[in-house]
Amino acid sequence: MGYKVTRFFYDLQDGDHLYNVGDSYPRKGLAVSNKRIAELMSGKNRLRVPVIAEEPKKTRRKKGE
Question: pTM of the entire structure?
């Protein structure tokens, strides 16, 4: 499942990696725990606001639709 950044932040658990609004989270090659995802999707982080949201699944249209 993918996530999009909704608020600029530095990921303190990823060597202060900078995430800008619209970036995918986590960055390629980084594995994160479900607990970390939950922290960033809620206000239970240092910024006290959600900074990522679930990215809607992309659906493929059939040809001719």
Answer: 0.83
